[in-house]
Design brief:
The chain has 314 residues and is mainly beta. The protein has a domain at 198-314. It is built from no helices and 31 strands. It has strands at 3-8, 12-16, 24-25, 36-41, 49-53, 56-60, 68-69, 78-84, 92-97, 101-104, 112-113, 115-116, 122-123, 128-129, 131-137, 145-150, 153-157, 163-166, 174-179, 185-189, 193-196, 204-205, 216-222, 230-235, 243-248, 256-258, 268-274, 277-282, 287-290, 298-299, 307-313. A five-stranded mixed sheet has the order 12-18-17-16-15, with no helix packed on it.
């Protein structure tokens, strides 16, 4: 049975060992009221997790039973995203708010800040600060990685995170970036989903307003049983008052709504998967579960406050 980890604002990390029937908070070594905005699992060791928080990055080597801070360089920084390379698990990237990109080559012991094209620090007329909402490590090239900045567009590094360049789209409110097994990149924003066939040099808008109830899109995920099927979380806004899940089986040429058997309470924010299990969570605390790769969904009875991190491990 899959183990589920949920990162929450003001509630740190929760874990379920029974597929989501019950949860317990797992915060030893971490401030119990941390804001968790990024949560990721080691690609080959399910005992190891990294969490991005409002006070830096934490690491667990026992499936979240205990945590320790990673690297004094990020201490006190607000971390919104963390990603680990499947090709080199010592290679980790973290994204912050205000937007900054940091790389570790020693599994989080130390960090250096990336350089390159400047990233705006304020957005929407100074009403809020930019943040790195998504990170993606290339599955076959450890030197190549991608980052999405809200609201200053996508970035790419081809030298292992040392330098980052703006690619393809200017001033786009990037919410998530994912890569399909065939190398196709997908990017979600507050008004559109884009596709790239050249690793981000150019992007094609997929015209979701013709298919979705709302244009505000957040997390994306692939079916664990058929990775050619892309799922997109959607809603009426951040956090919004309702949301849904849409999927495409043909690279965004057509879409269908995936039935989650409920009216969600807010925008569907993110996905996680392991084995045939797939999870989707709303930003206001609901978690939906599929045990058949995303075909059928049911809502977990347990609800949280504000969810920003979601991990599912076998």
């Amino acid at each position: 049975m899959a183990v589920i980890h949920v990162g929450a604002i003001g509630q740190s990390v929760w874990r379920s060992d029974d597929g989501g029937a019950t949860f317990r908070i797992t915060t030893k070594g971490m401030w119990a009221e941390c804001d968790i905005r990024g949560l990721t699992a080691h690609p080959s060791d399910s005992d190891v997790l990294y969490a991005g928080s409002n006070v830096g990055v934490f690491k667990s080597t026992d499936r979240g039973d205990s945590w320790e801070p990673c690297g004094t360089e990020l201490s006190g920084r607000e971390i919104w995203s963390v990603a680990i390379s499947a090709l080199d698990s010592d290679l980790i990237v973290a994204g912050s708010c205000p937007a900054g990109l940091y790389v570790s080559r020693d599994a989080g012991v130390s960090w250096t800040q990336g350089v390159g094209d400047p990233i705006a620090q304020d957005c929407f007329g100074g009403a809020m600060q930019t943040r790195v909402t998504s990170l993606l490590m290339h599955p076959t090239d450890a030197d190549t990685m991608f980052a999405g900045v809200e609201a200053d567009g996508p970035r790419r590094s081809t030298d292992g995170g040392r330098a980052w360049q703006r690619i393809g789209l200017d001033d786009v409110d990037v919410h998530d970036i994912k890569m399909a097994p065939d190398g196709t990149l997908y990017l979600s924003s507050n008004f559109e989903v884009f596709r790239s066939d050249d690793e981000g040099d150019s992007w094609l808008p997929l015209g979701i307003k013709e298919h979705f109830d709302h244009t505000y899109c957040r997390g994306m995920g692939f079916s664990p049983t058929d990775p050619s099927v892309l799922y997109v979380g959607n809603g009426s806004g951040p956090p919004g008052h309702t949301g849904g899940v849409y999927r495409t089986r043909d690279r965004g040429d057509s879409w269908e709504r995936a039935d989650v058997n409920a009216r969600t309470n807010s925008c569907v924010w993110q996905f996680a998967s392991a084995g045939e299990w797939m999870l989707a969570s709303t930003v206001l605390g609901q978690v939906y579960r599929s045990t058949d790769g995303g075909e059928n969904w049911g809502k977990l009875a347990w609800e949280f406050g504000e969810i920003r991190g979601l991990v599912c491990v076998a």
